[in-house]
Protein 1
Amino acid sequence: MERYLDPTNDVGFKKVFSDATRMMDFLNSILRLPIGKKIQKIEFVPTEQIPDLGQGKRSLFDLKCQDESGTYFLIEMQCRRSPIFLKRMQYYGAHAYTSQIQTGKKHADLLPIVVIAVLKESILPPNIDVISYHRTLEEKTGQHYLQELSYVFVELQKFHKNEEELLNFEDEWLFFLKGAHTSSHPPLLKDPCVNQAFETMERANWTPEEYDAYVRARLLLETEELTAKEQFDLGLVEGIEKTARNLLSLGFDKLSIAKATGISLEKIEQLDKEQN
């Protein structure tokens, strides 16, 4: 039986980071915030303020926290690749920014938003680092004038260090999120918060009810992944059949079409009859 459960699981992520001290340690580590800029306050986003992102959104735990300067940080755990993920994150940030008006703030009082996305799968090109920071800069001077919205992506798939190669707290958190569920023993780490996180994810420390919720979250994700694959496969088949029909209409012989598309000759015959 596995010793540790997967912290990227919706329920597992919530169990780890519902502890404010651990969450602040994690964010301060991955954001590389200096003294004076450390996050000092955490609050959860009320349900009515979380936008409906749709399209297979996989996050039960959206966190909103605020640092000493007043900047808001929003964090999401994304388990499954989505072709529109970057658009969703920009919508998420814009929604959080503009929703401040609904709380009574004036435009001059709006506070900056930083969206932090922890992704189980990579979405940016391979030459982009595990943690990447995105903000709007003036093209000619490189100056940062539009400071209200910025984004941080943590792509766990790009992290490959083993326990002996970890250099700092940032590495230890990435090591935990990427592979805690593959560990067979408690690692020797320097960050007490990461050590606590490993202890939290030990299967033996979960109640039957908590573990049941964990399994149901995993099964839900697997079901969504299977549905997405089935939809992709269906679209692929439809595309190949459309190509075969086009070739038939252009007068190509059926045997050549079958070889070119991988469709059986019997299916080509059927498509030909449907068109005639």
Protein 2
Amino acid sequence: MPELPETETIARDLDAAVTGAVVERVRVVHADVLREVTTRMLAKRAVGATITRCWRRAKMVVIDLSTSDRIVVQPRFTGALLIDDGHLDESERRYSTVAFHLADGRTLHYCDIRRLGTVSLMNPTRFAAHVSGIGMEPLDSAFTVEHLSARIRGSRQAIKKVLMDQKAVAGLGNIYANEGLWRAGIDPSRGAATLTIAETARLHDAIVSVLRESIAARGTSFRDYRDANGQRGNFAKQLRAYGRDGEPCHRCGHRLIGTHAIDGRMTVLCANCQS
């Protein structure tokens, strides 16, 4: 599933490419991806509107329209927002579920092989309610060590599980929770409340740094993630934990362990240097 760095990359690409474009026509191929809007209502409210901004909230890509409506896309596992200037490969176009045809001749496709992602249309009030329970963005200046400490110190759950809770930290998923905990040298199964302030500070710095570095590398691609131009991210080669179970730890050389015991998701750790 695209996490913060991947959706941030998509949103930045779209903001640079389609801000100012006018939606001329909307074509819905598979209405089962729509949420909070019907095919007819999506066309009625989007056609004629100008795209004024594209940005990210948590793991969602948000497209602001001049009408104040917002197109909210959650790609989940196999979703991709792709800009088609007429050269998009037909193998990509065939999985288009919703297509926004722009007045300049381009098309913005939401492609999704498994159709597990969603496309919604919300007015500002509905959007505010939709995101009201989501935690602070970890790249926000207000996301301090003290803020993170306040979010985790009352929980008896494993620290990895807390980090992946969108109510605690926005946008973190399995990849970057694994990476942040490895960088901080913290066992993912540790009870969140047992972390000292020094450990929390290390974790805070690790989360922020790994997210920034992944954004700079345009995200992590294993199978499905692609940016708005259909290109793959380059951060996979920089991963030190996720996807490396059975391989040597880059810090101490011991073999990394993979387990599903913590939260049902793959957790990779070094039993020697993560405590």
